[in-house]
Structures are given as structure tokens and as C-alpha cells.
């Protein structure tokens, strides 16, 4: 493999330590949030008793915490690899971690001290109408927490944009726009890590600007209740931001697939016009597909909902297809050695691909009107987040953590996570197809079998992830010392 294919810059020790710090925080918070998730599932199964007030606090914290940690760990993957091709600032990268931690403390405080439980989507005017369950200040803490995390990400993306511009001269060039439309030879295109980072920067900057605007408006509304705005516009802004942010986590994590599989197969990741066109298309569609979150809002203009449905059918597909095809051709008959790291990144592509199918179904208006508020929804997004995005990220963690790590249990962790995670998401999807509603603290007797099986799956998956994370943490010291940077 040419050095070009894996990037010509090496990762300085300081930068490497910063990435490890991101992953350590991510691993610990991920496990904590998974335990919150299991708590909800066990409560729905009636195997533990949990006051409904607490259920909704935990639901809010789990949603916000998981979306945040997906962003943080995705950023670690992206930054580590894009830094091999363009100059990036470790100080800005660490500042983002700082903003994230401040935000996380504010959010956890808003929930566990202040009782905030308006769900991570903070739909207007809910934060201000708690029915005396939480105070205005608690709601404000939550909103400030999200703003802090958004500011950090904005800085990080701007710094990466600066690096991309300095090497490629423009965002179109970073994305491979000309190559995608056959206006330039395929082999002059940017490496996959650069194309993906450009796309993520573009969409996340737009999303964060809208998110920040609606967060500030909601904050003003908390303290000046006479300042109100159109709730449907607010919902549009929130889901524009929310959809983009969570999807961007997958587009960041997928860089691990492009960069890690080739190191196992000793074959460069082949990019062609279709690869670049896919990234261009996805850039546009990720920005415009969010109305699929508003299919139940009858006041929305019909054209917007129809567009939402049609773009949903297409949105994830281009990048998914070129990635799945690329992963198969890269590994087919390559004689690669499967281990936990290569298995996890490969699983990530599969989990993403499988999870998109029920998501596309749900993005169809006729189906959405039946399935929308059922557990079909957490069923599909847990499939591509838990078994897709998180799998890619855990693959990166396991790979970077190094083979020298003291615990050889990684394969056990992998299988527990895969089997438990699959049971867990299938329980959600089957419950959804039986019309079990989502976001209910208390379930009817007839729904309990799904909850019980889901709880068992959740516990197995958590045990698997715990093994992978503890293995990583135990090997941190030797991973920080470096090793051969051209290999890792
Ligand atoms: C073992 C791991 C996990 C468990 C046990 C778990 C459990 C749960 C449960 C029980 C719910 C509420 C379902 C309902 O509405 O009835 C939920 C919602 C949710 N989960 Fe997870 N989850 C896990 C992993 C993840 C991951 C990895 C992510 C994202 C990266 C995630 C993101 C979310 C989000 C965004 C919600 C929606 C919250 C809301 O409705 O406001 N979860 N999860
Ligand atoms: Cu969406």
C-alpha cells in the first residue's frame, strides 16, 4: 500500500493522547448511558420498579447523552484520520472536549438535580411547561448545556475546514465534487477521510447554526414567557439540527471503515466517481430530509412532507452503498486476519445497512401514520446507532488501543455485544410491529415479553461493550506511549 493511501502526515504524540482522552471519556459515558437505557428497559419489563418521573428524566438524559457521545466519539475518529491529510489544531480539538464536558455536566445537573425531563428534543414550548416537575433554571441549564456542546463542535468543524481549505483550496475540492461529476479524473480526488470530513463540516455547521438559534429563542422564552414563536417552525428547526447532528455521527465514524480495513487487507480503499458523487448527494440530502420527522404534523405543507418521504428513500443510500460495496470488495479474498477491531468496523457497515431498511419504511407516510410513535422508531435507530455507528467507533477504539493490551477477551466482548445488541434491537422492532408505543414508562401486561427479551439483550450487549471498553482503558498507558505510528 502506498503511503499516500494512509496519509502522509504522522500523528504527533500529543494529538494521539488527545484522541485517547476522547475515547476514554466516550467509553465511560457510553457505558453509563447504556446502564440508563437498561434501567428503562428493565422498568418497562417490570423487573425493577422505577418512578415514572425518574423514567422520563432518564429517558431525557439517555437521549441527549447518547447523541452527544456519538458525536464526541465520531469526532475522535474523524479528527484522528483527517489529521493525516490536512493540518488540524490539537488545541481546538481539546477545546471541543472541554465544551463537551461543561455541557455534559450542565445537562446531567439539569436532569438529576433539576428534574428536567422534556426529552432530548426539547420541543417548544415543553421546556417552559413542566407542570412543576422542574424549574425554569433547570430547563435553562439543559439548553445551555446543548449550546456549549454546539459551540465546541462549531469550532472543531471550522478548524477542519481551515485545514481542508489550506490543502485543497475549496470545499468542493475537499468533497471531490468535480470527480463526482466526471469533470476531473477519478484518481485526482481527495482521500475518503477528507471527503467525509468536508461533508460533515458543511452539514453540521448548518445544523448547529439552526440549533443554536432555536436554543437561544427557547432560552429567552423561559425567562420572558411573552416572547413566543411558531411551534411548528421551532419543531422544523429542532429536527433540522437533530437529524443532521445524529446522522453526521455515522458519517464521521465511517471514516474508521475507510482507514482501518485497508490496513488489514493491504489494499487501498478504491475511490471512483460514484464514491464522490455519493458524498455530494448525501451532503444535499442530509440537509433536506428532516421533514420525515414531521409526517404527523398536519399543518406542514404537503410538498414538504412528500419531499421528506422521497428524500428519505434516497438519503442514506448513496454513501451506504458505496461503503458497503467498497468494504466487500476491499475484504473479498484479501486474506485479512479477522480480529475484534476488523470485525467491529465490518459489523458497523452491516448494522448501518440493516438499520436503514426499517428507517426507510418509517419514512414512508402511509407506514409512518401507523408506526410513528411505536417502538419501531427506537428499533430502527438503535440498529444503525448501536450496531452501526457505535460498532465502527468501538472498532477504532480496539484498533488504536493496540494488540498489546493485557486482556485478550476482545472477541468475547465482540460476540456478547453483537448477539445481545441484535436481541435488543429485534425486541424493539417486534414490539413496534405489535404497536407497542415508544416513550411509555409503564407497559401493559401484554407487552412485557418484548420488554423482558429486550432487557436480556441489553444486559448482554452492555457486558460485551464493558469488556471492550475496560480492555481499552487497561491498555491506555501503552497505547499513549505510541508504537509504530505508520501502522496504527
Ligand atoms: C445497550 C444499549 C442501549 C439500551 C439498553 C438503550 C435503551 C433505550 C430505551 C429503553 C429507550 C426508550 C425506548 C422507548 O421509547 O420506549 C431508548 C431511547 C433512546 N436511545 Fe437508547 N439504548 C441503548 C443504546 C443507545 C445508543 C448507542 C444510542 C445512540 C448512539 C441511543 C440513543 C437513544 C435515543 C436518541 C433514544 C430516544 C430518546 C427519546 O425518545 O427521547 N441508545 N434507549
Ligand atoms: Cu431524520
Can you name the CATH architecture? Answer: Up-down Bundle
Order of helices and strands: HHHHHHHHHHHHHHHHHH
Described by its quaternary structure, the protein is: single chain
Low-confidence stretches: 1-5, 484-488
Q: What structural class do helix, strand and pairing data support?
A: mainly alpha
Q: Approximately what portion of the residues adopt beta-strand conformation? A: under 5%
Overall outline:
globular
Count of individual helical segments = 18
Largest pleated sheet:
none
Count of beta strands: 0
Considering DSSP H and I runs of 4 or more, what fraction of the residues is helical?
over 70%
**How big is the Rg?**
22 Å
Could you tell me the CATH topology label.
Cytochrome C Oxidase, Chain A
Bound molecules: protoporphyrin IX containing FE, copper (II) ion
